[in-house]
Amino acid sequence: MTILDKIIERKKEEVAISKAHISIDQLKNTEFFGRKSFSLKESVNNKSGIIAEFKRQSPSKGIINDKIQPLEVTSAYENFGASGISILTDKDFFGGSFEDILNVRKHINIPILRKDFMIDEYQFYEAKSMGADVILLIAACLSPNQVHEFTALAHELDLEVLLEIHTEEELKHFHSNIDLVGINNRNLKDFKVDLQHSVQLKDQLPKDTLSVAESGIYSFDDFKYLKEKGFDGFLMGEYFMKNADPAKAFEEFSLLI
User: Fold this and answer.
1) What pTM value is reported for the model?
2) What is the DSSP letter of 141?
């Protein structure tokens, strides 16, 4: 069983528990459910293109930074020109929580991506209720038909969709209603990073597709290379979070752009 399989099995258990405690009708009556979402598509086009991530840990890296609070980091991300913010809400494998989005939503005026493993319609109502603007669909754990259905539901809820792909085979999950396509530079099986592989996948997408480079951006040179190859957005977390002061790291990076 791969780490992705383990995550999905645990996610099914989490969703079942959440459904038993809070109904969709209750989620619809929460503070943020009726708010108008910010558009990540527009923000990527009009700002730096960086979707800066708040991430405490990962299965491959272990603890990255568990000493700092979300608002301190995300406020700096916004102040220094991030197009959007990605926040992990998976608890067991990434150390995240729903509260990480809830606690910053009122203070942040750029799009927030709920980064999690979306496998059930219920999670989309959760995302809306916590104040997210965008959800992540991971092709590796969904069928093309599920991607279609989940995209339609997301749009009904005024949420944009970032579809993440890793392989050429997963290109078949793409369809014209997808808002942005993220191409993960890291192979999910062996965790090796290959920027050139991502460029090759991007070049097979329709030319007007907003593309986001994900993972493995370890330097400004990596960022510059991917930008020159035509990527519109850049999902970056570990590069900033591995620093004792992620806010300062992002400020310094933004000065280079």
Assistant:
1) 0.96
2) G
CB 64 within 8 A of CB 75: no
Going residue by residue through the chain (257 aa), what tens digit of pLDDT does each one get? Answer: 888 899 999 999 999 999 999 999 999 999 999 999 999 999 999 999 999 999 999 888 899 999 999 999 999 999 999 999 999 999 999 999 999 999 999 999 999 999 999 999 999 999 999 999 999 999 999 999 999 999 999 999 999 999 999 999 999 999 999 999 999 987 666 667 789 889 999 999 999 999 999 988 989 999 999 999 999 999 999 999 999 999 999 999 999 99
A 10 A CB-CB count for 198 gives: 25
Residues 6+ away with beta carbon under 8 Å from 16: none
Q: What is the CA radius of gyration of the chain?
A: 17
CA angle 93, 146, 6 (to 5 degrees): 25
C-alpha to C-alpha distance for 156 and 214, rounded to whole angstroms: 26
Q: What is the DSSP letter of 38?
A: P
